[in-house]
Amino acid sequence: MSDTGIGARVLRKEDKRFITGKGQYTDDINLKDQTYAYFVRSPHAHATIKAINTAKAKKMPGVVDIFTSKEVEEDKIGGLICGWMIHSKDGSGMKAGPHPILASGKVRFVGDQVAVVIAETREQAKAAAQAVAVSYGVLPHNVDAGQAMKTKAQVHDVASDNRVYNWSIGDEAATDAAFRSAAHVTKLDLINNRLIPNAMETRAAIGSYDTGSEHYTLYTTSQNPHVARLVISAFHGLAPEHKLRVIAPDVGGGFGSKIFIYGEEVTCVWASKRIGGRPVKWTADRSEAFLSDAHGRDHVSHAELAMDASGKIVGLKVHTIASMGAYLSTFSSCVPTYLYATLLSGQYDIPNIYAEVDAVYTNTAPVDAYRGAGRPEATYLLERIVETAARELKIDPAEFRRRNFITQFPHQTPVIFCYDAGDYGAALDKALELSDYRNFASRKAASAKNGKLRGVGFSAYIEACGIAPSAAVGSLGAGVGLWESAEVRVNAVGTVEVLTGSHSHGQGHETTFAQLVSERLGVDINNVAIVHGDTDKVQMGMGTYGSRSGAVGMTAISKALDKIEAKAKRVAAAVMEASTDDIDFKDGTFTVKGTDKKMAFGEVALASYVGHKFNSSEIEIGLKETSFHDPSNFVFPAGVHICEVEVDTETGLTKIASYTAVDDFGTIINPMIVEGQVQGGVAQGIGQALLEGAHYDRDSGQLLTGSYMDYNMPKAANMPHIENFKLGFTFTKCPSNPLGMKGCGEAGAIAAPPAVINAITNALGVRDIAMPATPLTVWNAMQPMKRAAE
Amino acid sequence: MENFNYHRPATVNAAAALLKKSKGGSYMAGGHTLLPTMKQGLASPSDIIDLTAIKGFSGITIGKSAVVVKGGTTHMEVATSAAVKKAIPALAELAGKIGGVHVRHKGTIGGSIANSDPAADYPSACLGLGATIVTNKRKIPADAFFTGMFQTALKDGEIITEVSFPIPKKSSHMKFPNPASRYALVGVFVSQDAGGKVRVAVTGAGPKVFRVPDMEAALSKSFAVSALAGISAKAKGLNADMHATAEYRAHLIGVLARRAVEAAK
């Protein structure tokens, strides 16, 4: 291992500009003659738009123009799409209602955009937006997923019972048979609470149309600028791809919410042409972010787990109602289906699984992928019911899990996935040791002396990431393939530029990707630049989400580096007058076997471009290679997390007393960055379990958690003390990519919620407690116990 | 936010004159409530009269029987004052629990009290210690000062120049923060004066800061946790929202009062 190669704890190259305020985010960019957009948003959860009067607003100072659905329709700008077709059990396609970039005829949630005001300043645009008079006819609304199929509030004409699809997976008859022969069945009703992503940087866009070249540019906060360009070209019909450049510069976090194509960004591009080519800039304020960013989770589920007399799981049945919100966001439909129910086998050998999912419309912000996307929901459901089953059977939850672990690989689950490698028992052993599980009873007794209830909870999670083999996802309904591209350009002086279709918005790609190049070519990481986020520089790519940038993106780089090495060997052989087969390359030096001849990598790079010392009709000038890598399988990171909580019996306040995370991510490029991903993911998972929850008022349909006054983001004080936050790693190599990598970005957010809730239910001795387990919720849960004790 | 005229007077009288002359002006101390409401368009004063440049407007003096905090004194000054920590440790502790570090460096005692936010911390110290609020016109006892939600006895143009806190024999402040905002979901300030009389003031739980007479009477007889046995705050009239029901708030008043008595020093 070199100082900056694979496995080195290299400090992040990008952090200097981030922590010194030199990052270039979309809002930092200002173009000549720029105007500002402000959106008029619906104050109602559900209403017809009777009339929009912009006359008064148009006369206000600085107003350039105001657009509504009328102008969108005039210009035939297409609506937003959902790129994954899901079919119901009965074979019918999902019911996708129209999703115009500005609401047409009807608004469907509080915050739905109705009109856009373009003005000389943001303040002028905002002031005029307040003067746009919209007359609404208020309709009945429903914000509750559980009520969606029963309510009179019909969100879209195409879905009479608000049902987008009724999808199923697994063998129902075989699962029913397994239940009939079971010795014990555990049943659990669960809610997976709706979350609001809250990336540090809110969404922003600058649309700019050049009237001379008829070329559009969009600067935007995107996790996948190429997909944005493709969708805007192919579906909105704004411009063909060669006339549209999408730039996603520094992006301050996404957690999934910036994968999607939103109406505001498309509006900025379109409006720039409509006002004659002046750039149009929009930056969401935090209130808009709460209202209009795609939210996450929001499941209502019933689960049943069947065991035989030996405590072996024989079947799992699940029914889930998943809220899609008011519209189908870009990838929303695949989240509660192929990213969810396919993971319901977890780490367990479950011979029979049947799951049915009803996706429903509600009068709320659209719901789509959020850190983990479907896999946290699956893990929460499975790990809660497994823990509950162990308690009912009076088997230690660790032992119950071990008894049911998959131990042979590859393992085909009944729900599509074929797990390729893992050692779940090893992770459990390590987690038990790190958490000092055997002495839990004495810690519980010590807590009791201080008037605190202590509990312990497990979570043995698995996720499928490294998304994804193109043919496989295509067969399941995806509109795109999920490969990744890389281009490696070696400059004549031996420095290296890597152009990647992955996009870094906090992950540290500029460091980890450079470490791979450093390892392979023996160059200093400071001589490696990672170029991403610009469709004019990187030809095509699929972006960053689903923990795919390592397993898929870096594999593409690795394959391009293979080609670079092969080409460089040919050049070195020619220059050193040897056979290519006799050239060895190690630590940045090319040598000729059995001689003392050698050339440094930089010398070969120079020779490649000078072109004097080889026959350029046999070896092409230059050193630049491209690879498009399509993975052969998903990758399956897994691990065991153990949480201990202390509950204050007087106030209901829960503290994380300790947290242990043991993960198998395969090969780790930069342990420091990976540890940060685990800690950050766990923080988000603790957030879901204890703190966060989007709360729409049933009666008014208003978002009550519309600011940090009410939406509780995780804070340092909510985390376990760093000494009690233990990280461990186990290793099984991923067989489906040459680096053996699995992916780590989502693990913590997937694993943590059930670990925390299992610990609280263990502490309180209750079957369930709703997330977020706030002091009020916990105190309420304790009242029946107190009354019983009195 | 609407445009406004900004003034930075050097004396209390000049500030009062500027306000009187303005069409619809507002004083600003720390600005922690005023500026957010202006940004949200909920307030649009014609003039902002910034009080922070007034000479002698901040500072702390410790008398024989009282701690006097000038109106423009920041929370950080109170929280870190060695003299306050010695005279009324609970007051310094309370100031140290307001907001975050940035807030404590800008927010002022006068601004906090004048705003009478039902979940603010300082009003509980004023009421719990029986403070006197001194303005450029008069002296107002804390018991008469907080008149309602965001309502005080201050008349138009009146400026809080100082707050005088009697030094108690013992006092303590307990706060259970709102999990999201960190304002007081419930805060309880307990003090016992030299003569043994006890005050119990509660913030966060009702429309305004209030005292709990049952608890005060019991603790005045015997300043011990056991004296509170069987006394519970009534849920009726308390705030209810997604973070806490009225019953939960009433329960927390009891818990925090007991903890405050136990910790009083």
Please provide a written account of the structure.
The complex is a heterodimer of chains A (790) and B (265). Chain A has three domains: 31-139 and 200-253 and 258-292, Aldehyde oxidase/xanthine dehydrogenase, a/b hammerhead (Aldehyde Oxidoreductase, domain 3); 299-467 and 633-789, Aldehyde oxidase/xanthine dehydrogenase, molybdopterin binding domain (Aldehyde Oxidoreductase, domain 4); 483-629, Aldehyde Oxidoreductase, domain 4 (2-Layer Sandwich). Chain A has a seven-stranded mixed beta sheet with strand order 3-5-1-12-9-10-11, sandwiched between helices. The longest helix of chain A is centred in the last third of the chain and has 27 residues, at 549-575. By secondary structure, chain A is α+β, with helices and mostly antiparallel strands. Chain B folds into three domains: 5-50, Uridine Diphospho-n-acetylenolpyruvylglucosamine Reductase, domain 2 (2-Layer Sandwich), CATH 3.30.43.10; 60-166, 2-Layer Sandwich (Uridine Diphospho-n-acetylenolpyruvylglucosamine Reductase, domain 3), CATH 3.30.465; 170-263, Enolase-like, domain 1. Chain B is 33% helix and 23% strand. Chain B is built from eleven helices and 14 strands. Chain B is globular. The chains are: A alpha+beta (790), B alpha+beta (265). The A-B interface holds A 123, 130, 650-653, 691, 695, 704-705, 708-713, 774-776, 779-780 and B 1, 41, 176, 179-181, 183, 242-245, 248, 251-252, 255.
- Give the strand tally of chain A: 28
| Strand order in the sheet with the most strands of chain A | 3-5-1-12-9-10-11
By secondary-structure content and strand pairing, the structural class of chain A works out as alpha+beta
- CATH fold title of the largest domain in chain B: Uridine Diphospho-n-acetylenolpyruvylglucosamine Reductase, domain 3
Tell me the structural class of chain B. Answer: alpha+beta
End-to-end separation of chain A in angstroms reads 64 Å
Mean pLDDT of chain A: 97
CATH architecture name of the largest domain in chain B: 2-Layer Sandwich
What profile does the largest beta sheet of chain A have? 7 strands, mixed
How many separate domains of chain A? Answer: 3
Number of domains of chain B: 3
User: Mean pLDDT of chain B, rounded to whole units?
Assistant: 96
Please report the number of helical segments of chain B: 11
**DSSP helix count of chain A?**
19
The quaternary state of the protein chains shown equals heterodimer
Strand count of chain B: 14
Strand order of the largest sheet of chain B: 4-5-10-6-7
Percent range for β-strand residues of chain B: 15-25%
